[in-house]
Every structure is written in structure tokens, then in C-alpha cells.
Design a protein that fits this description.
This protein has 357 residues and is mainly alpha-helical. It is 82% helix and 0% strand. It has 14 helices and no strands. The two termini are 26 Å apart.
């Protein structure tokens, strides 16, 4: 038989447990806010380092293949891999910066073509359907000039900022590769993280490379200007889940619209064919090849995309998926944070199952 004192003690114990849970949750929330603020404040240093960390993981796979399969000595495989990596990054940077320079040089021409396009559209609008007077129409015609100028200026600044960090990224990559004493992945948690990230990077690089190559060849055959640059951007944007493929498909649209030498059929094909390529690669080939290697729910990937994009911009969106996978692996190793890792994977935590039972 339960005594009144025992009931009061039980109630007091429940209140203490509830208070401890509230305090723990509050501390976690405050620590998360402080951590996010630190990530934002330290972005000029952390972005090159994290980018170099993942690049070095990708290059480490090449070093390991040269040493274990091609039987290269490590002291030759390491500098050869660095040269190949630097050459690839330099080539990508040259293509993108050259394309941006070409866009900036052709900016007035594109703005004039866009103004003429607006004039042709306004000419087809009946007077009784349009509320645009002469002044409003002239203002509308002036919009493309300023819009194209602002777009080119922002694109140029973004590329220059990214290229300005390439030297620091290269220094980090060299030290990370040289500092790795063994080609064999470590054991334990860090080994699991490295194997998971390397598997993701290898699959994503191969699929993105084929996507960018097919998109660039398609646009080149259709006569779209800057076809190579759009192929490179399709390769890079394919690392951004879901959103990246849509952006890569729509990127050529402004250039296609203002290029008078492109016919209407070629303009439609310049959007439809890359969209079909992106859909085939993203919805058929990639799931079959990669499977559920990262064990992340699409909602978790979408939230991480928004979070890292707010903190670190485009680079944060590129790195959002592997960073989230690393965080999930760490959370999986601790009993207190394991329910969060289960939610990130799209599974109901076992503690909730036990309480409901």
C-alpha cells in the first residue's frame, strides 16, 4: 500500500527530472546558438580549412590507389597527386573566371538584346490590356541594363572571393596530405567517418563529372555561348542536393534568351535536354549507385542545406551534406545524442518506442 509520503517523494522526483531536462535542453539550445555564431564569425578561416579537408580526402583516395594498385612509391604518388589536384582546380578556376570575364565584356550587348526582347513582348500586348504608359514602358526597358550590370558585378565578386581563398586552401591541402602518415584509413569513429565521406565523394565526383560533361556537350552542340562554363557549373552545383540541379538547369536561360543566333527550338532544347540529364542522373543513376550510403533523411539534408547556406553561403551549401553526415556519425556514438542521430536518418528513436510501449 502506497503511503502519502511516498507519493509526495515520487512527485518531487518527477519535478526534479523535468527541471533537469528543461535545463539540459536550454543549455543545448544556448550552446548551439553560440556554436553557430562562432562558425559564422570564423568563416574566413574555417571555410578554406573545411574545404581543404574534404579535398584532401578526395586526393587521399588517389594517393592510396597509386600506392596500392599502381605500385607507386608514396614519395612519388603524393607529389603527383598534388600536381594533378592543383591542375584540376586551376583548370576549373580558369574556366569559371574566363567565363565571368566574357560575360562582363558582353554585358552591354546582352542588356541591349534583353531590352529588344522586352520591346517585342510589349509590342504584342494590346493597348487595352496593358496599363503601362509611355513612362512605365521606358522604365521597364531600362531595367535590364541595371539588372545585368548588378548580376555581373555580384558574380564577378563571388568568383574573385572564391579564387582569392584558393591559395590558402592549397596550403591546407598540402599540409593535410603530407601530415597523413599512413594510407590505410584509421579505425574507430574517425575511420567510419573517413570511409563514409570518401565513398560519398567518389560517387558524387564521378556522377557530377558525367553530368557536367553531358550538359556542356549538349549546350555546345546547340550553339549556346559559354557552354563549357555551364558544364563546369553543372558539375559543381550537382554537389548541392535537389536545389543545385534546378539552378544548373536554369542558369543558361538568360544567355539563351538574349542570344539572337539561337533558334526557338534550340532554346527549348537547351533547357529541356539538360533537365532530362539532371533528372536521369539525380533520380535514377545516383540512387542506384550510392544507395543510402550516408543514411540521412531528405528533410535532414534540406535543413542542413539551409543552415550551412545561411552561415557560409554557396560553399556551405556545397559542403552541407558531408558535414551533416559527419555530425550524424558523431551523434550516433553517444547514448544521449543517439536519438537525434536516429531522427536525422529518418527513424523514430528507440527511447520513444519504449516510452510509448
Amino acid at each position: 500500500m502506497t503511503q502519502p509520503g511516498e507519493t509526495g517523494a515520487s512527485a518531487t522526483s518527477d519535478e526534479v527530472d523535468l527541471e533537469l531536462r528543461v535545463q539540459t535542453i536550454s543549455q543545448v539550445v544556448l550552446a548551439s546558438i553560440a556554436f553557430a555564431a562562432a562558425l559564422y564569425w570564423l568563416a574566413p578561416v574555417l571555410i578554406p580549412f573545411v574545404l581543404a579537408l574534404f579535398i584532401s580526402m578526395g586526393l587521399a583516395m588517389v594517393v592510396r590507389w597509386l600506392v596500392q594498385r599502381a605500385k607507386f612509391p608514396r614519395h612519388l604518388a603524393l607529389p603527383l597527386t598534388l600536381v594533378l589536384g592543383v591542375g584540376a582546380l586551376t583548370g576549373l578556376g580558369a574556366v569559371i573566371s574566363g567565363s565571368v570575364a566574357q560575360l562582363a565584356a558582353n554585358g552591354p550587348e546582352y542588356a541591349a538584346q534583353l531590352s529588344q526582347l522586352i520591346d517585342r513582348v510589349l509590342a504584342f500586348v494590346p493597348a487595352e490590356w496593358s496599363t503601362l504608359g509611355g513612362d512605365s514602358a521606358s522604365v521597364l526597358r531600362e531595367i535590364p541594363v541595371s539588372a545585368v550590370g548588378d548580376l555581373l558585378a555580384r558574380t564577378t565578386n563571388a568568383v574573385l572571393n572564391l579564387l582569392s581563398q584558393s591559395l590558402l586552401v592549397l596550403i591546407f591541402v598540402i599540409f593535410l596530405l603530407v601530415g597523413s602518415s599512413s594510407d590505410a584509413p584509421p579505425e574507430g569513429t574517425f575511420g567510419e567517418i573517413r570511409r563514409s565521406v570518401e565513398s560519398y565523394l567518389f560517387s558524387k565526383i564521378v556522377i557530377s563529372a558525367f553530368t557536367g560533361l553531358l550538359v556542356g556537350m549538349t549546350l555546345g552542340l546547340l550553339g549556346v555561348p559559354l557552354a563549357m562554363a555551364f558544364g563546369v557549373l553543372a558539375f559543381l552545383l550537382n554537389f548541392i542536393p535537389n536545389v543545385g540541379s534546378l539552378i544548373a538547369t536554369l542558369l543558361p536561360l538568360p544567355v539563351v534568351m538574349v542570344s539572337p543566333e539561337i533558334s526557338a527550338g534550340a532554346a527549348i532544347a537547351a533547357i529541356a535536354v539538360p533537365a532530362a540529364i539532371q533528372g536521369l542522373m539525380g533520380n535514377v543513376i545516383e540512387p542506384k549507385w550510392m544507395g543510402d550510403s550516408l543514411d540521412l533523411h531528405p528533410i535532414a539534408i534540406l535543413i542542413s542545406l539551409i543552415f550551412w547556406g545561411m552561415l557560409w553561403g554557396i560553399v556551405g551549401m556545397l559542403l552541407a551534406t558531408p558535414i551533416t553526415a559527419v555530425v550524424k556519425i558523431f551523434l550516433q556514438k553517444f547514448e544521449g545524442s543517439r536519438p537525434v542521430a536516429e531522427l536525422m536518418a529518418g527513424r523514430m528513436p528507440q527511447t520513444i518506442h519504449r516510452e510509448s510501449a
